Structure formats: structure tokens, C-alpha cells
Amino acid sequence: MLNEFSRTQLLYGKDAMEKLSRSRVAVFGVGGVGGYVVEALARSGIGALDIIDNDKVAITNINRQIIATHKTVGQYKVDVAKERINDISPSCRVTTYKTFYLPETQDQFDFSQYDYVVDAIDTVTGKLTIIENAKKLNVPVISSMGAGNKTNPAAFEVADIYDTSICPLAKVMRRECKKRGIDSLKVVYSKEPPIKPLEVAEETSEKRSIPGSTAFVPSVVGLIIAGEVINDLCKG
To answer: CA-CA distance, 51 to 81, in Å (whole number)?
Structure first.
């Protein structure tokens, strides 16, 4: 009988699709990258998704985030994403967390429940905590490196963190992973040198630099990550 995943089953087979339907994936960060990860995982037949993000949709998200429209501005990202997932795959079990993942919030999560973990957040401390907790339990994890201030979606590739170069975030993560004895980490990154934003974003008075972004870079990173998750789960 035909269903929403019939075309995917033509490539992976019935056994793989059943495995995906039994899989539970946690996606930390539901923004420009993470939103597309969630979208592709839902459309691939993943049976359960935990989505973690404390942000609300802002007007400046519309240029790059799949859940961001004028209609959803002001709503929690995880709430918008859950509604979208339910429209795509009603059988998918969605658990939402309106929180930022940090060392002080990590006790809210039981990583042993996950078949795969996606790190699509921005803070180094949070990323490292996600990765450490996944590695302790031998849960597969993939991490997004810098997608801001870049314009070439074709430059992104999958690599181990210790094989990366150019990307400033990857440089920091290499150093911190080494300190923590993390000997490998699958990441998506680009060797494209970051572009310096032309001007300071008007909506902030903070001194930190707000990265520029496009519709076609974070989305590609998210889809690459989702592809790795699906392929790894099907092989495992």
C-alpha cells in the first residue's frame, strides 16, 4: 500500500524503513540548520523526534529558517516545528523542550533513549556537553560547524573534526575536543573563509558580531546532516 514514504522505500527497502520508524533522534537547535534537519528526518519516516530550542521565531529568521514565516513570528520554534512534523508524519512522536542545552540543563535529557543525536546549536559549551554525553553512551552524534557569514553551499563537506581547516568554529572545537579526550567527531563544515558582515545588525545593541546568512547555506548544511543520520541508521 502506498504511503508518504513509499518513494524513500524504493531506495532503502522495507526493512530500513521499519528501522527508521523505530528510531528516536534528538535535534538540539531548531534554527537555520536544525529546522531543515528536522524537516528531512520527518519526511524520511523517523519514528520519534526530540527537538530542543528555547527561542521564538523572529522576523530576521524568515530569510533562512524553514519554520519562520510572518504567521509564525513570536511563536516558540519547537511548537511551530512540532505542528509541521505532525502535518508531515502524523505517526511521528514529537517531544519538545523549551530550553537551551547547557551544562546546567543537561540533566533534563537521557541520552540513552536516543539512536542518534544532532548538534545544531551555536554555543561551544553546549556543543561540547552534547558531544561528551553522546560519546559516553556510544550514541552516534553529528555536529554542525559554522554556517554563518558564508555564501557557497557547495563548499560544505562531511569530515572528522580533526580533518577540518579554515572554519573558525571547527578550530575551537578541535582544540576543546582534544582537551576532553574526544578522539573523533563527525561534523559538517566548509573551508570557505567567513565573510565579514557589511554592517552591524540594527536590532541589537550588543558589541558581539551578528553573522549574516542566506536562504541556501544553512538549509544545505541541515540536509547534509539529515542525510548522514538516515544513511547511518539504515546501515547500523
So the answer is: 8
